[in-house]
Design a protein that fits this description.
Fumarate Reductase Iron-sulfur Protein, Chain B, domain 2, 344 residues, 4-stranded parallel β-sheet, single chain
């Protein structure tokens, strides 16, 4: 992999990235912009902008020079004790479930208060498990398996009509790589590839699917991964009809990997009427664990996202990434995964 310093030479300072960057949009400060962060890496400044990056990587979609922003910013991002503990919990959804239940009882610290503002104590569950050696793998995703278990159950039930499904719980490593923990992410990628044994891996987290598709670029590991909606469309699976109107949020990494086309196609195949929000790919404000550790900037981004959703004129939002769902739900909207609509 080319060094991050060498990659900074690709940046032409055109500024096309600025308006795609949520932290620049809310601060109008170049320190918190992709261009500013790249320049800080180039000149060797330890900028606060490295840590304020939401790692949505939407700047990459706007860059005419093809700057590999993630490969520039990842090596200079520093984890912390809190983030390391968070990563360990995400790796083990059972531990995550127990930890969230415990935190709900000691709601007296700022970070804990922040989490419990978005998570309802009565929705925290043990992850769904099975012991089958399936034809395909269902990888719910770390947050999804614990906070949105009903969605996991619906997806498992639907897929089981046509396939033998093995459930693998865990973390894809996106949380780790976004915190600069390359080695932690690599180990999780290896672990998942070994468990999958070449079978199709279907995840309920669109951003996880996007990251899995980058395993080869990051780690030299190939995995046959699919976003849930992508699998439904590519397999030509018959879907139930839903006579209702929704707007759709496009998770950032999924948008960059063009997976949102499948989400939209699945909704249209179900007969769903789609009322567009403004800039459906604009960052939701969650940013992985960003919403916990950078609450002020996160809330500023969420306020903009709330207004963009409002322009759709509907209250029902299709959201296929769990932290996005938590953020958008906190704005007062009703959130639905594609899997939630399969038994209507």
């Amino acid at each position: 992999m080319i060094s991050s310093l060498k990659l900074t030479e690709m940046c032409t300072h055109c500024g096309f990235c600025l308006e795609t960057c949520p932290t620049y949009v809310v601060t109008r400060n170049e320190v918190h912009s992709p261009r500013g962060r790249i320049e800080a890496v180039r000149v060797g400044i330890n900028s606060i902008g490295f840590e304020t990056c939401m790692y949505c990587r939407l700047c990459e979609t706007a860059c005419p020079a093809g700057v590999r922003y993630a490969q520039i910013i990842t090596p200079v991002r520093k984890s912390s004790t809190k983030k390391t503990l968070m990563e360990k919990m995400l790796e083990n959804p059972k531990l995550l479930s127990k930890s969230l239940k415990l935190l709900g009882k000691v709601n007296s610290y700022p970070d804990v208060e922040r989490v419990m503002k978005f998570v309802k104590p009565n929705e925290i569950s043990e992850p769904l498990e099975n012991n089958e050696e399936g034809d395909i793998i269902l990888f719910p995703g770390c947050i999804e398996s614990v906070i949105f278990r009903k969605t996991v159950e619906k997806a498992y039930k639907f897929l089981s009509r046509n396939y033998k499904v093995k459930i693998i719980n865990g973390c894809c490593g996106l949380a780790h790589i976004s915190n600069g923990n390359y080695e932690g992410a690599r180990k999780l990628a290896i672990k998942l590839a070994e468990k999958a044994k070449g079978k199709k891996v279907i995840t309920l987290q669109s951003n996880c699917a996007a990251f899995m598709k980058e395993y080869k670029e990051w780690f030299g590991i190939e995995i046959n991964s699919y976003d849930f909606a992508e699998f439904l469309i590519k397999e030509g699976i018959e879907l139930p009809k839903v006579n209702d109107t929704f707007t759709i949020h496009y998770p950032c990494h999924a948008y960059r990997q063009k997976l949102v086309t499948h989400i939209r196609n699945a909704a249209e195949k179900m007969g769903i009427k789609i009322s567009e929000m403004e800039d459906p790919h604009f960052e939701c404000g969650a940013g992985g664990d960003y919403w916990i550790f950078h609450p002020k900037l996160s809330d500023m981004v969420m306020n903009i996202k709330r207004d963009k959703i409002a322009k759709s004129g509907v209250r029902k939002v299709i959201v296929t990434n769990s932290v996005c769902a938590l953020a958008i739900r906190s704005m007062g909207y009703n959130v639905y995964h594609i899997a939630d609509l399969l038994d209507t």
